[in-house]
Amino acid sequence: MLAGIFLAHELPSFFSQAAPIHLYGLNYDTRKGPDWAYNKCKERYEVLRDLTMVSRVTNRIRVLSLTDCGQGQLVLDVAKELGMQLWLGMWVGVNVSEFEGEKAELVYMLQQGMINETTVLGISVGSEAIYRKDATVDQNIGYMNEGKHQANQRVAADETVTLLYSYSFPVNSVQSINCCRMLD
C-alpha cells in the first residue's frame, strides 16, 4: 500500500525528469472507478493532465472503447490539442448491443468530421474479445469488417454514388493468448 502511494505521488516528478525513453505507444482509459461508482469517468482536465504527462514518453495512444465514459470523443479532442495520435477502439462484449453502440458512435464521429488521418492511426476492434470468449474469431472478423465499412461509407442518391468519407487507416484486433496453456 505504501509503495502504491509513493509511486502515485512520485509519478508526475518521474515523468517530468524522465530519462530519454520513448515508447511506441500506450493504452489509455478514461475510467477512474468501477461501473457502479457515480464518478467512474475522468473529467476533461484529468485527461488533459494525464495525456500531457504521457506525451513526454510517447505521442501515440490507444483507447479500447469509443463509448465508455465518452472516451472516443474526449480523448480524440485532447489528443488533437496535444499533437498526439491514437488508435480508436471499438469494444466487443458478450452483448451485441455494446458493439452496435460503438458502431453508432463511430458513425457519429465520422459524420461530425472529428476523425482525420492525421490524428487517427487506425481502428482496433474487439480488444481481447476472443481471449475473454466474448466473441468467436469469425464474429470478431465480422465486427472488424463492419468497422472498416463504416470508415469507407458510400451513399447512393439520385442514381449517383457519393463518397461520404474514405479513410485508408487500418482496422485490426488486438488479442492475447495464454502461451503457458499452449504448452499443456
List the helices and strands and how they pair.
Elements: H1 2-16, E1 26-27, H2 44-54, E2 60-62, H3 71-82, E3 85-90, H4 96-111, E4 120-125, H5 137-151, E5 154-157, E6 160-163, E7 171-172, H6 179-182
Parallel strand pairs: 1-2, 2-3, 3-4, 4-7
Antiparallel strand pairs: 5-6
Helix pairs in contact: 2-3, 4-5
Helices and strands: which structural class? alpha/beta
Binned, the helix content reads 25-40%
Low-confidence stretches: 1-9, 156-163
Number of helices: 6
Overall pLDDT: 82
Q: Enumerate the strands of the largest sheet in spatial order, edge to edge or round the barrel.
A: 1-2-3-4-7
Main pleated-sheet profile: 5 strands, parallel
Give the full name of the CATH homologous superfamily: Glycosidases
Our Rg estimate from Cα atoms comes to: 18 Å
What is the top-level CATH class? Alpha Beta
